[in-house]
Amino acid sequence: MAASISGLLKPWTPRVFLVRWSRYNPYYLEPEVRKEEYNRPETDLSPEEIEERELKIHRPIKAAVNSVSSSGYNDPVISKFINMMMKHGNKVLAREIMTDTLESIKRKQVEKYHKAPEGKREEIECNPYAIFHQAMDNCKPIVGMASIQKGGKYYQVPIPLSENRRRFLAMKWMITECRENRHRRTHMYEKLSQELLAASAKEGNVIKKKYELHKMAEANRAYAHFRWW
């Protein structure tokens, strides 16, 4: 009797040996943060999904990590942008600036929408999240420059950029432009909303900086083979 009870309680008891990479034993299930998965009827589920849903009723579930959220407004790209814009650990201020920026973009686009004639209203994008992502995609460079030493001399060699590096440069240029090239009476969110709207239309100083980097890479394409040395 005691052996059977200990066998039933074994998956629930913590491990004797500590594991560096996880505090949960394999008996715990992975968390599901997508709300739409819980609202799906059983008729739309496969046998494996039905079995997994029944297991979650009786077995414990791991806690979700901090970077994962079930909120519909959660956006990992905007979260990265807020972290880059943050100074001295004041994330509350950075999040407020981003919220005011999205609200300012929404107001400007809605005002533009109502002033436009009936035939051109469909062309105006009023979703600030879509405008933000479009601006970031337009600001991402394709190639970059790397300083490589060859024969006692340093050459500026064009190299292809990874997706993370492209996103980093786009965000860095946008934040630097809004901080350094704005009037002292202009708020940060006003300048940021202006630059995002301009970048979404492939205009502005950030787009110019991207084209200048591409021109420099085109001018130094004769040294492109040095990146393999």
Detailed description of the structure:
- The structure is a single chain.
- By secondary structure, the protein is mainly alpha-helical.
- The protein folds into two domains: 2-58, no CATH class; 76-228, Ribosomal protein S7/S5 (Ribosomal Protein S7), CATH 1.10.455.
- Helices cover 51% and strands 7% of the residues.
- The protein contains nine helices and two strands.
- It has helices spanning 2-9, 35-38, 47-58, 76-85, 91-115, 128-139, 163-180, 188-200, 205-219, and strands at residues 143-150, 153-160.
- It has a two-stranded antiparallel ribbon with strand order 1-2.
- A hairpin with a 2-residue loop joins strand 1 and strand 2 (153-160).
- Helix 7 crosses helix 9 (205-219).
- It is extended and about 65 Å long.
- InterPro entries: Ribosomal_uS7, Ribosomal_uS7_dom, Ribosomal_uS7_dom_sf.
Task: Produce a short descriptive summary.
Pfam families: Ribosomal_S7 (PF00177). It is found in: Mitochondrion. The chain has 229 residues and is mainly alpha-helical.
What summary fits the major beta sheet? 2 strands, antiparallel
Distance between the termini: 71 Å
Count of alpha and pi helical runs: 9
Task: Provide the succession of SSEs.
Answer: HHHHHHEEHHH
Question: In CATH terms, what is the fold-level topology of the largest domain?
Answer: Ribosomal Protein S7
Which blocks of ≥5 consecutive residues have pLDDT under 50?
none
